Each structure stands twice: as C-alpha cells, then as structure tokens.
Amino acid sequence: MSRRRRVREAALGYLLVLPALCVFAVFVFYPFAQNFRLALFQAPPFPGLPSRYVGLHQVGQVLTSSSFLESLVATVLFVVMVVPAGLLIGLLLAVAAHRRLRGMAVYRVIFSSTVVTSVAVSALVFGTLMDPVVGLLPWLGLNPSPPILQNTTWALPAIAVMAVWQFLGLSFIVMSAGLSSIPEEVLEAARVDGASERTVFWRVTVPLLSPTIFFGTVVATIYAFQTFGQVDILIGPTNAAFEHVNLLVYNILNTIEIARTTGQAAVLSIVLFLLTLGVTLLQLRLVERRVHYAQ
Amino acid sequence: MAGVAFREATKRFGGAVALDRLDLEVGDGELLVLLGPSGCGKTTALRLVAGLEEPDDGAIEIGGRVVNHVEAKDRDVAMVFQSYALYPHLSVGRNIEFPLRQRGFDRDERRRRVADAASTLGLSELLDRKPRQLSGGQRQRVALARAIVREPQAFLMDEPLSNLDAALRTQTRADIVALQQQLGTTTLYVTHDQVEAMTMGDRIAVMDHGVLQQVDRPQALYDRPANTFVARFVGSPGMNLLPATLEQGAGGKWEAQVAGSALAVPETAATAAGGAGAALVLGVRPEHVGIGPHGTVDATVVIVELLGAEVHVACRLGDGTNVIVRQDAAAPRPAHGEAVRLAVAPASLHVFHASGARVESGAGVGHAPVPGEGATP
Amino acid sequence: MPSDAPPGRRARRLRLVVRYTLLTLGAVVVLGPLYLTVVNSLLPASALAQRPPPLFPVHPQWHDYAAAWSQGHLDVYLRNSAIQTGIIVAGQLVTSTLAAYAFAFLRFPLRRTLFVVFLATLMIPFEVTIVTNSTTVSDLGWYNTFAGLTVPFLATGFGTFLLRQAFLQIPRDLREAAALDGYGHLRFLVRVAVPLARPSLAALGVFSFLAAWNQYLWPLIVTGSGTNVRTVQIGLKLLEGTQLSHVDVVLAGTVIAVVPLLVLLVVFQKQLVRSLTGGAVK
Roughly what angle, to the nearest 10 degrees, separates helices C74-105 and C247-276? Predict the structure, then answer.
C-alpha cells in the first residue's frame, strides 16, 4: 500500500477512536491515576488552604482506621451473603425454566424482570415490606427490636436480601445462557448411558456450566462491591446500625461529600480497585487452568 | 474498455513472494484466465489489478496507464468475488444499484441501468428479494449484474463458479462467456479448475508459486505444455510423466529407458535433449497410450474407472510410476491386476528436461493415431 | 390420574407437577415484592396496615399517583431521566460505533495497544474514579447540568468491544467490493457496516438505556442540590425522605419509575439477554 494511502487510513483510524479515547482519558484514566497521587496528600483543616504532602502516612492511617475496618468487614460479609445466594437461586430458576414447556416464556420474563429494577426501586419496595408499621414482617412473626433497618444485627442481611433480589434477573439470564450453551447431545448421551437426571445434573451439567458459574461469581462479587444505594436511601449515616452497613462505596461517597477529605477517599478507592482486580484476576486464573485441563 | 498489463509486477507478503515479476498483457476485449492451484498467486494478481493490493515492484497498467497508486474506487474495474460479496441487508435491486450511487448517476439513469442489467441476467423478477432468499445461481447472477451495471473498463472474476453445483457450473460457464462476448469487456478470470479455463478462456495463463508458467490459447497449451507443471495441471486426467534415460540403441535409433522398457524417441528431440545418457521426463496424454500386445512397456493394471463414455485405466510400471490410459468405453477393458503392455507412438511423446522444461526440438506434437488395436475410436 | 397408568408415565407427570410448582414459587418470590408494591400503591392509606394484607385492590385509588407525579415532581424527574438516558445511549452508540469500526476495519500503528487500553477501562469500576471526577465536573462548572450528568459516560469499552465483534463478522469481501464500487470507509460504515450490525447495536442500546436509567451514584453526586436536572432515581430517594407519612405515594412513585422498564424488558428481552451475555458465556 502506498505511503499516502496508509497515512490517510491511519489518520481516519485515530480520528474515529479519538472521541471515546478523550472520554476515557478524562473520566477514567486520569481520575484513576489521580487516586495514587491524592492518597499521598492530606486535606487541609480548613477549605481553601493547600493540601499537605504526607506520603504513605495517610494510607496507613486510613487502613487502620475503625471506619475502614468496619467498611471492609461489612463489605466482605455482604459479598458472602449476596454472591452464593444470588447465583444459586438464579441457577435454580434457570434449571427449572430450561425446558420447552407450555408457559415457559412467561416464566422467563418474570425471572429476568428484576434486571430492570434500580437500586432505588428495590430499596423502596423492600423498605416498605420491612417497615415495622405497614410492612409484612411483623405479620410474619419477624419483628426484631429495634426495627430491622435500625438493627445492628439484621440491617446488613436486610440490605443483602434486596441486593440478591435485584441481582436475580441478571443471575437468571447468565445461567440460562450458560445452560443453553451446553450441547443437548452431551446430556442425551449421558441419559442413554443410564445416568439418572440427578447424576446428569451434577456430573455433566454443572461441570460444563463451570465457566458460566465462574463468570457469574465475578459479576456478582463486583456487583456486591459496588452496592450502597439501598443503604443510602433506607439507612443513612445517622442511623444506629450505620457502622454495620457502611459498605465501602458508601464510605468513599461520604468521605468525599461529608468529610471532604479527598486523600482518604482516594485510599479507599484504591482498596476498592484492588479488591475488584483481585476477583477478576482470580477468575482469569481459574478459567485458564480449566482450559489447560481441557487440553 | 481497455487492456490490462502486468509489468514485472511483484508482490510479497512478509517474507513470502506471492507474485514474482509477472509480465502479462490482457488484450482489449479479451477473456484471459489465470489458472493455477491455490496459493499460486493468481488471486494476488487479480487483487493488484483491482487496487486492493499494490505491487511492491513493477507496475500495473489499465488502458496503457500505470495505476499503481490509483485507489480501487478510481480504477473503474468491477470485481465478482468468490463469495459474491452481496450486501445481505439490501434487496437485489439495491445491490445492483449500489455501485451507481457513488458515481453521480441520476435516479432515472440508475433505474434504467439496473433494469438493463437485471434483464440481461434474468433477474427482473427478483429485484425486491433479499440475497438470502435466492439460490446460489441467482446470487451469482446478482454479483455479475452488479459488475456489469457500471460498464467498467474491465471485469475481474475470482473463482465466481466455485460455489455452484456441477450442473449449474457448466451452464453458467457458457453464460459468462456469452455475456463477455456480447459486452466485449476485457476480463481477467481466476480459477483453479482447468476445465473452466479450457472452455472459457481466449487465452490461459498458468501460474505456480507466484511464477507465470505459460500463456497461450487453450488448445496450444494442451498440445505444447511448456513444462511438466503445465502438462500435469492442464488436462483431466493430467499428462502422464515418466522419468527416463536417453540411449542410442542398435541402428542409431534413440530410445528412452523407462522402468526397464524402451520407448522410441524422435531423433530431433533426442539430440536437443542432450544425447545419450541425458535424464529426461517423457510426457504422454492418457488418450495417446494404447494397451495391446504390440506395446513395449510392461505394466500392471491397478484401477479401472468407468466414467460412462470413457474408461480410465490406471497402470503401474515396474519402477512404481503410475500411467493413466484413457480408453473408449466400447473398447475391451483389461481386468484389475492384469499384466499389460503399453504402447506410445513417438510422435505423441512430449519430451522434457529433468528440470521440467520442455525440450524444444522444433518437432511439433501432432495428433498422431495411437498404435494399438481398438485403443482409439 | 388413572391408577393403572404405567409407572413411567406417572413419574413423569409427577415431575411435571413438581417443576411447575417450583416455577410458580420462584415467580412469587421474584414478582411478589413488585406485585405487592403495585397493590399497596392503589390502596387507601388506611388499608395498608390491614392483616392479612389485601392481595387485590378492590377499590383502586389513583390519587397517590397524581400526588407522586406533581408533588413528588416525578414529571420533571422522568423528563430529566429521559434526556439524560437519551444523551448517554446516543453518545455511547456513536463513539462505540466509530471506535469499533476503526479497530475492525482500519490499519494504524498502535491499534492493538489502543484496543487493550479500551478494554482496560472495563477493569476500572466507575466508583473508583468518583473522587477526582466530582472535582473535574465541579471545575468545569458542570454540577446540576446534563453535561455533568452524561459526559463521563459518553464512551464505553464494553460497547466498543461488542460492536467490534459484530463488525468482525462482516466478510472482508464486502468492504473490498464496496471499495471497488467507490465507497470510502465512512460511507461503507453508514451504508453497510451499521445496517449489518443492527442486532448488536440494538443490544448495546438496550443495555446502555438500562444502565443509564438506573444510575444512582453519579446523579446523586452531580444533582445533589438542584431539581432542574435531577433524575428519577434520586427523585425516588427524596420521595422517601419527604413523604415518610405517605407510604402509598412513595409506592406509587416506585411503580411509575419501574413500569416503563418492565415494558422495555418484555419488548426487548432478546436484545437485553444478548448484551448481558455478549461474549461472556461461551
């Protein structure tokens, strides 16, 4: 290809990539990198004064602070509650709906439905159901005192229920797609070989579904890491149970908005990034190993 | 309309030479077939003319003008792709019209031309269909219509028949030739199918490993292949090639020793080939080999294939070389495993150097009758 | 079921019953909360505390909807959400299409590197960038503007990836045929590549719509103090904050916010599933 034509094609290529690249540069990479700089500066005691370079001092300070440890514990507990439940129920629904039977299309729409709900919708729907006065919990015989959303023990599980419910739609869709990617002949071969339905499920379906389950785990974990809206709407920083539901993202938000200490928020952001990265890398490793195993 | 020429055109991909100093002229209005096995450079040559690739060295000319740096869209050539490259989201009519939209034709002119092209190719009833609703043959004709609608300087066709079934291919072959003659547009036609090449081309250019082997009219190519590659590639089955050593026998007659048997060789060819002791390759068309008691080469019948009108008898010589004999179906057939003697008339022998190049002796190979009883009609 | 039915058939029928029971139970768990919300939003406030809870609104009351609409400013918020979502969806479709075309059809130095850079954005959750992004938007004077609400989301690595995959499915012959027919890259993009990638564009569109409409964190930060661009999600939060005594109004607001999306789901289920599982499940 002639030089001129090559240059023209390259110029067009850069031009087409440029708009997206600008957005990424300004709103993804720059603020991401900024975190590592901000983490080294402490906000001034009064607004308007310059920030002070404190090196890693601030990092240590944040990482040992009780607020951070609360957040970390709450976030990890939250992940442990949301991820297995969300995936398992999603898988169950997907397996139940994975048959060509009458009415299945309706069930599929119903099971996917929560994928369109927002954080605010799930918060308000469940906030009402869990309300001590108009809610259903007292009627069902569950009436902890203090009320569930101010209860240091039950507030986090309550938020987890909302998150699981909101995640069910996505979980169902992902699991269903995984199930339909399993070739029907393999299952039929197992049945012809005399395996019971239960054996087919545990020995054939689940192993073949494992990439989907890995993928779902990462999606669910990242989703759980990023949850905070229900806490913001239903609980808030003045609530008695607050320190037990102070999920990491909420902590970051409050550190920016209320405490206005960007350096500390930057440290928390880096922690959140590393957690997300860790989960993603773990997934890549597991999938890679599986692939090698298959070869 | 215009001729197309390659001037020492060379194209490399990475370290591999796809096209090696190709020198070739396609006359105005001619249909020239580029023939060769896959990877021989024929498609690369076509893409150089199209402007989809540029030569690393040498030049491409269209209508006497060097077009090396002219972009594809400005070359005014039309191409028919092996896959047809129809736009799946456009109707047949829109597909045919597509090339016109960029060339400043007004709406009425576009409509007129599309209608003309469609009627030429019998597509008038199908203009509103989408490509996926068409049969393979219909798609192929849409691709042709899209090429002719622009009235370009030249047509480039890249194996346009390879996705059709055998019967349709024979029919379409004739249709394309008729269309090309009617339009008189210079056409460069790429194929790996020698039957297609023989039946369609005004001339055929045979290529191998990026190198042009021979250009000639189909019959000349068949009668006087320039080397063993062309000999083998053109004709179905290809020419039999027998490694041989030249000797001067009793009485000064030239003979070639082939697998322990002797075959008479014309003297002119023998002297041109280098005289006694020269290593040769003898070529003989399957239809020029006879089976009979007067034959001079011992062989065993390995396979007998009946093709309806004719029979192919595969024989193995003492040294393991295979020889195919083409017989009339009415002739007596040898049995599988039978020991036979093969006869070849000296006049029908093609003599090649061991390197593969034809021994130029001046003595043309005629259509000598094959010796042997009942071996030829 | 006749008692003399063959045992295999009886077992199969039993299994079918179990399956449908399970399915219906699942449907109740998934849809129950939303259903009760709809019912409650139509009940008079006095009926809310009734036990057992009414499962059907015998005398539906619509005034809560009117209240949520006007006093809760949901009319304004819905409009704002529509504008915000429209800008983000359109922006993402355009930038992703352009970049994906470059990655799929054009040759230029650093193409691979740049593509990796695009994919790297998927590794950085938006939450991680809010510290500086809120400063940036404030410095630009974009608080309480649609620009502040939407510009950070006008590009997507995921969408670029999805569309690149779609463009790579287009046979190269088509590009070459179009080039011979006189079409440059941009015209080919508009006339051929985009029409052929329509299913993927639709999938990305639905996905972007959902993600944008349901955004919470960023609108919370950017529209903190002003109502002029506040989106419906933040509106719901405020409804909860200001209407505590009127649970039914809050619920009416919730229904207003979620029903359009349920309709969207029913209409575009295929596209949505496609985008949510795009490339991830093999």
Answer: 10
Residue type at A198 in one-letter notation? R
Contact A262, A39 (CB under 8 A): no
CB contact under 8 A, B81 and C177: yes
**Residue C141 sits in the same domain as residue C267:** yes
Q: Which CATH architecture has domain B237-353?
A: Beta Barrel (2.40)
pTM above 0.80, yes or no: yes
Q: Which residues contact B135 (CB under 8 A, 6 or more apart)?
A: none
- Within 8 A of A237 by CB-CB distance, chain C residues are none
Residues 6+ apart with CB under 8 A from B222: B198, B234, B235
Cβ neighbourhood burial of C116 (10 Å; 0-12, 13-18, 19+) = exposed
* Cβ atoms < 10 Å from Cβ of C135: 15
Contact C123, A32 (CB under 8 A): no
pLDDT per position as a tens digit, A179-234: 988 888 888 888 888 888 888 888 888 888 888 888 888 889 999 999 999 999 88
Report residue A47 CA to chain centroid gap.
34
Look at residue A70 and give its three-state secondary structure: helix
Kindly state whether residues C56 and C79 are assigned to the same domain.
Answer: no
- CB spacing of A2 vs B69 below 8 angstroms: yes
The Cβ of residue A59 has, within 10 Å, a number of other Cβ atoms equal to: 18
Structural domain that includes position C176: 65-276
Q: Provide the domain count of chain C.
A: 2
Q: List, for residues B223-262, the tens digit of each pLDDT value.
A: 999 999 999 999 989 999 999 999 887 778 888 888 888 8
- Please check whether residue B86 is in contact with residue B129, taking contact to mean a CB–CB distance below 8 angstroms: no
Q: DSSP state, C53?
A: P
CA dist B18 and B43 (Å) reads 9
Contact A110, A116 (CB under 8 A): no
| A270/C282 Cβ within 8 A | no
Residues A51/A263, Cβ–Cβ less than 8 Å: yes
* Structural domain harbouring A46: 3-52
Question: How far from C1 is each of A43, C11, C12, C224, CA to CA, in Å?
Answer: 76, 11, 12, 63
- Cα angle: B164, vertex B168, B173; to 5 degrees: 95
Query: Furthest-apart CA pair in chain C: how many Å?
Result: 81
Q: Which H/E stretch holds residue B61?
A: strand B57-62
- What type of residue sits at position A51? S
**Longest Cα separation, chain A:** 80
* Residue C84 domain-assigned (yes or no): yes
Q: Among A99, A69, A159, which residue's Cα sits nearest to residue A123?
A: A159
Residue (of C238, C233, C35) closest to A136 by Cα position? C35
Domain layout of chain B by residue ranges: 4-231, 237-353
Do A41 and A69 fall within a single domain?
no
Across the interface, do B68 and A2 touch by the CB < 8 Å criterion?
Answer: yes
Is B4-231 a CATH 3.40.50.300 domain? yes
Q: Can you tell me the distance from the alpha carbon of B221 to that of A128, in angstroms, rounded to the nearest whole number?
A: 90
For B51, the closest chain C residue by CA position comes to C180
The per-residue pLDDT for range B144-170, each reduced to its tens digit, is 999 999 899 999 999 999 999 988 999
Q: Do C217 and A101 touch (CB under 8 A)?
A: no
The residues, any chain, with a CB within 8 Å of residue A209's CB and separated by 6 or more, are A91, A175, A178, A179, A182
Our count of domains for chain A comes to 2
Q: Name chain A contacts of C134, Cβ cutoff 8 Å.
A: 256
Best of C22, C28, C30, C248 to disrupt the A interface by mutation (most A CBs within 10 Å)?
A: C30
Give the separation between CA A34 and CA C133, rounded to whole angstroms: 10
Residues contacting residue A24 through CB under 8 Å, at least 6 positions apart: C117, C118, C121, C155, C157
β-sheet bridge partners, residue B246? B256
Nearest to residue B370, comparing CAs of B346, B337, B351? B346
